[in-house]
Each structure stands twice: as structure tokens, then as C-alpha cells.
UniProtKB/TrEMBL annotation:
Gene3D superfamilies: 1.10.246.230, 3.60.20.40. The lineage of its organism: Bacteria, Pseudomonadati, Pseudomonadota, Gammaproteobacteria, Oceanospirillales. This is Gamma-glutamyltransferase family protein. Pfam families: G_glu_transpept. Coiled coil: none annotated. It comes from Larsenimonas rhizosphaerae.
Length: 542
């Protein structure tokens, strides 16, 4: 069985969930139920993931939408009891008309957060269609039916989503002045305010768009009526996105990258995703053989320092892989990890990039009885995204382009047709060629930090999936700043300060990521799931 303690050291939270017939872990109960219903109808884990993801665009618009990007890691079980892990990169490129000069001509020194400038081609619809085409069992249109029903008939807004919605409304009331962003209020605040917890919310426009995607297997978004509507709105409101940008988009099957940690292979999507950061951090701490006690100052200090070094390298070297000058294998090599580990002392550092040898998001996890499993993530990037909403469609366009640099010499510099450094990363664990299962922690630049912490909670400290998610987290905020979530022992905070860290106490838990984990016992097929206590999450089982 699983090598975890049966006791959750965080007793105020829920217990791990066990099942055999299938499992869906998601950040919203109705979305998890949509995926579970696909399993009950004879669908597989891929069908469940698509249905859950589509439903999340309706019930959790504060983090994702039809205009998002997506990544997936898909484990397909074979007849020999093992299987193959597949990676899907469904991130979109910058419009061909968008250049650094165009952004600077608008008076910007950095990429803005809102409006048309940070909008890149959304990849999420292409991810749904491609996953279904290659690995799904049920008709594609059936997978979007629950989401269409939720949008058409309405759903009760959950408490954390209501809170995030209200925060966004307050911000947007002041920030949105362009014609392109005025549609946000009509679509997401038709009563002049954000919906309250328990209040019903519906969107016929969102339902109509999902129905169009269902009928066309998402072709309409890239080469049909929806693409024409996006193009027309962009042209009339000063945007750069065009029908030819949408038509040129294709999601890409990629080879996942991994590192061996405590005898387990930890898998991530390769660049342009930041999963490489989590693997580099694990490589650094993996060289220590005395990380056994979770709430220990030496362990916590080394975790923080390793993440700082890995993240600094990530920002220096990760970009669209066609533009990277340092390859992934070099950054994941043991000699490079050792060189970075050697820079860690007993006091906090102000990190700088190393010298390698030259050569707002939702996450869900699904598993079925046959052994197929999916780690899936989709995101607008920052909350509702750019604030640009295509009229009468419910399509809120992402602001992923905000991650580009306007320094033309930087590896992640904005360039037409280029994909930006991407924060969203699904994770997966295998051992001896067999799947253990999907995991992920959403939340912008918290994601690789969350990945590192939950992997260590599982593999170093023996916590089960639920306890691994319940455990208080820390977050590197830049320089020597470390935010510590409420729940960490006070003496650890004091000792971190004594080592030179600038420690900040944080009582708002929503900034520390929101994760899901499903692990499968290879011997029995029993599934063990954990879901995020920091949001309105749920696990649905068969």
C-alpha cells in the first residue's frame, strides 16, 4: 500500500479520499462532479478531465476561461501493467502584429496587465479537442454538455470564488478604462457587482459559445465563426489579435521532462513552462541526505535557498524553447545542481543566476479504473485575464503576454509568433515505470514552489496526499523575502529571521496555491486523493 502515515498531522483539515473505480479532484465541486459523470457513463480519465476543465470555465471564471492556455500530462496504461506519459503544450503565441516597439509606442516600459497588449492566442479549446481526438472514448460534444448546462441554467457561486470575484470587481472598476474592457462588467457583473456566495449566476452567452465549440470540436474558435468575431472585436477596439493568428495555432505534443527524487521520477512539462524550476530545486535539495523532519529550521532554510536559486535560473534561461540558449538537460544535470548547492550557506542569500555549462489558474487531476490518469491545468494567467471580453460570447481573453520582457536581449523578449515564459505546470509521479499519479499546485509563480513542497511532503516526510496539501506553505517573494503561511511554528519564523531571511507573516491563504493530488497503488489499483483546503475544492469518486 502507500508508504504514508495514516495520521494527518493537520487534524483541522479533511482526510485523504480512497476509491477504486475512478476519481476526479478539482477546485470546485460541480466541476469535479461533471468529470465523475463522464466516468460513470463509460468515459475514461481523459474524458473526465475535459468535462471538468470545461465546467471550470463556467463555475470558476476568476481563474480560467475559454480564452485560457492549457498544459496536460496524460498517462495511458498499456496491457503490460505499465504505460506511457504524454505531454501536451497548448499555450498560444503572441500575435504577429505585436512587437516591442508597438508596446513601447503605447507608453509602456513593461508589458501591461490589462487590455489588448498582453493578449496571446488562447490554447485551451485546442487542448480539449486534441485530448479527446487522441485519447478520449466519449463523443466530444458530450464532454461539454455539463458545462453548457451550468452556464445556461446557472449555478450557486462558491465562497472563495465569490471573494475573488469581488476583489476583481473592485480592482477593475478603477483599472478598466479602455473600450475593449468594458464588456467585462456586462458579462461578469450584470447586476453592477460581483455575485455573492450562494447566489445563482448564469451566462447564456457562455453557454452558446460552449455549444459552438461542442458542435465544431473547437474548430470555430480558430478557423470559424468564433474566430471571425474575435478578429472583428480586436480590429474595432485597437487590438492586435487577428484571424490569421488564431488559424495558425496548433497545440503540440511534447516529451515530458523529469528528475529522479528519492527513487521516484518527478515529471513536468518542458519549457516554455516553468516546471523546470521545480525540478532544478528538487535536484538541489536532493543532494542532502538528512531532510527528514519537516518542521526543522535546516530543512526549511535549505528548501527556501534551493527554490531561490532555481527560480532565479528559471527567469534567466526559460523561454519559448526555440529561443532558449541553454538546454534543459544542462540545467537538470547533477554537476550543475551540485554547483548551485555549493553556494548555499547557513544564511540567506540574495540570489543571482548561475553559469550553466554551455552546450489565476485551475488545476485538476483525474484517474479511471483502467489506470489512465491526467494532470491538467488551464489559466487566464492573472485572475480574469486581460479584461478583454468578446461581446456576447463569454470569452474572457488571457493576459499571458504580460510574462514577456521588453528587453530585446532577454531570452524571454516579446517577439511576434513567440510563446512567453509560462507559469502553469502540471506534475506527475512514476516509480519503476509505473504511474503513481498526477499532482499540481496552481497559483502563478507559487506553482513550482508548491510542487517542490508537496513532493517533499510526500516523499521526504511521509504525508498522505491530503496532509501534503493541508500542510502550511512558504513562498519566496524575491530577494531575501519569504512569506510564511499561518500555521508554521513561531520558532521557525524566528530562526529564519536569524539566518537573514526577511520573513513576512501571511494570513490570506489564497496566495499560497491551490492543489490536487491523486496517487494510485500499482499493486491494488486503489486511488488515494487529496484536495485543496484553500479553496472550494472537492473529490468526486466512482
Amino acid at each position: 500500500m502507500f508508504p504514508f502515515s495514516s495520521q494527518n498531522p493537520y487534524p483541522s483539515e479533511r482526510s485523504a479520499t480512497y476509491a477504486r473505480g475512478g476519481m476526479v479532484a478539482a477546485s470546485q465541486p460541480l466541476a469535479a462532479q461533471a468529470g465523475r459523470d463522464m466516468l460513470a457513463r463509460g468515459g475514461n480519465a481523459i474524458d473526465a478531465a475535459i468535462a471538468t476543465a470545461a465546467a471550470l470555465t463556467v463555475v470558476e471564471p476568476t481563474c480560467n476561461g475559454i480564452g485560457s492556455d492549457a498544459f496536460a500530462l496524460v498517462w495511458i496504461k498499456d496491457d503490460n501493467g505499465k504505460g506511457t506519459l504524454h505531454g501536451l503544450n497548448a499555450s498560444g503565441a503572441a500575435p504577429k502584429a505585436l512587437t516591442i516597439d508597438a508596446v513601447k509606442a503605447g507608453g509602456h516600459d513593461t508589458m501591461p496587465m490589462y487590455g489588448w497588449l498582453p493578449v496571446t492566442v488562447p490554447g485551451t479549446p485546442s487542448a480539449w479537442a486534441e485530448l479527446s481526438r487522441r485519447f478520449g472514448k466519449l463523443p466530444f460534444a458530450d464532454l461539454l454538455t455539463p458545462a453548457i448546462t451550468l452556464a445556461r441554467e446557472g449555478f450557486p457561486v462558491t465562497p472563495v470564488i465569490s471573494q475573488l470575484w469581488e476583489q476583481a470587481h473592485a480592482t477593475f472598476t478603477k483599472a478598466f478604462t479602455e473600450p475593449a474592457t468594458q464588456g467585462w462588467f456586462e458579462t461578469f457583473a450584470p447586476k453592477g457587482r460581483a455575485p455573492r456566495a450562494g447566489e445563482m449566476f448564469k451566462s447564456d452567452a457562455h453557454a452558446d459559445t460552449l455549444a459552438e465549440l461542442a458542435d465544431t470540436s473547437c474548430e470555430s474558435f480558430y478557423r470559424g465563426a468564433l474566430a471571425e468575431r474575435i478578429d472583428a472585436f480586436s480590429r474595432t477596439t485597437g487590438g492586435y489579435l487577428r484571424a490569421e493568428d488564431l488559424a495558425a495555432h496548433q497545440c503540440e505534443w511534447v516529451d515530458p521532462i523529469s528528475t529522479r527524487y528519492r527513487g521516484v521520477d518527478v515529471w513536468e512539462i518542458p519549457p516554455n513552462g516553468q516546471g523546470l524550476v521545480a525540478l532544478m530545486a528538487l535536484n538541489i535539495v536532493g543532494g542532502y541526505d538528512d531532510l527528514h523532519a519537516r518542521d526543522d529550521i535546516t530543512v526549511l532554510h535549505r528548501q527556501c535557498e534551493a527554490m531561490k536559486l532555481a527560480y532565479t535560473d528559471g527567469h534567466a534561461f526559460i523561454a519559448d524553447p526555440a529561443h532558449m540558449t541553454t538546454d534543459t538537460a544542462t540545467l537538470l544535470s547533477e554537476p550543475y545542481a551540485a554547483s548551485r548547492r555549493d553556494t548555499i550557506t547557513d544564511t540567506a542569500c540574495d540570489p543571482t543566476p548561475g553559469t550553466p555549462p554551455q552546450g489565476g489558474t485551475v488545476y485538476l487531476a483525474t484517474a479511471d479504473a483502467e489506470g489512465n490518469m491526467v494532470s491538467f491545468i488551464q489559466s487566464n494567467f492573472h485572475g480574469f485575464g486581460s479584461g478583454v471580453v468578446v461581446p456576447n460570447t463569454g470569452i474572457a481573453l488571457q493576459n499571458r503576454g504580460q510574462g514577456f520582457s521588453l528587453d530585446s536581449t532577454h531570452v524571454n523578449a516579446l517577439s511576434p509568433g513567440k510563446r512567453s515564459f509560462h507559469t502553469i505546470i502540471p506534475g506527475f509521479l512514476t516509480r519503476d515505470g509505473q504511474a503513481l499519479g498526477p499532482f499540481g499546485v496552481m497559483g502563478g509563480f507559487m506553482q513550482p514552489q508548491g510542487h517542490m513542497q508537496v513532493v517533499m511532503n510526500l516523499l521526504d516526510f511521509g504525508l498522505d496526499p491530503q496532509a501534503a496539501l493541508d500542510a502550511p506553505r512558504w513562498q519566496w517573494m524575491g530577494g531575501k523575502r519569504i512569506a510564511i503561511e499561518a500555521g508554521y511554528p513561531l520558532h521557525l519564523m524566528k530562526e529564519l529571521r536569524s539566518r537573514g531571511h526577511k520573513v513576512e507573516s501571511a494570513f490570506d491563504r489564497t496566495g499560497f496555491g491551490r492543489g490536487q493530488i491523486i496517487l494510485r497503488d500499482p499493486a491494488t489499483g486503489v486511488l488515494c486523493g487529496g484536495t485543496e483546503p484553500r479553496t472550494d475544492s472537492a473529490i468526486a469518486v466512482l
